[in-house]
Amino acid sequence: MKGARMIRKLLFGTAILLGAQYLAAEVVDIGSLLAKFHATTLSDLYGKLDKPLIIDVFGDRCPNCSRFGPVFHKVGSEVGQQAYFVSFNHTTAVGSEARRLYNIQRIPFLIVVKDGSVRHNGVFEGNESTLRALLRQSAGLNV
Prior knowledge:
alpha+beta; four-stranded mixed β-sheet; 25% strand
């Protein structure tokens, strides 16, 4: 999976977040997003967001993740400032939290948060048009 790997240690918390990826210049990594909103966990972050959050939980050796990653990155870079798009490995600290919160058994796993509540969470096996439709419906994005 392509993308810059970021290591972020939060000074105000105990979490060490590994493997978050930048998707585009306008999109932040999960560590920066947590820091921006003074959150230490995903669930703490949800109620503090000022726009939708779209999360891709992936694995390095996952063939479906390899196919979905470029689609997620493309749509994320096009959406720009309408939403936060983040992608992180399921083996990271924040990935472990996501696995626990959503009982993730298979990946890629897509989570959509809008107005403080989870609007979608589940394994994503669709294509670009399916992703766009899902984001229009669950996050109200113009994609």
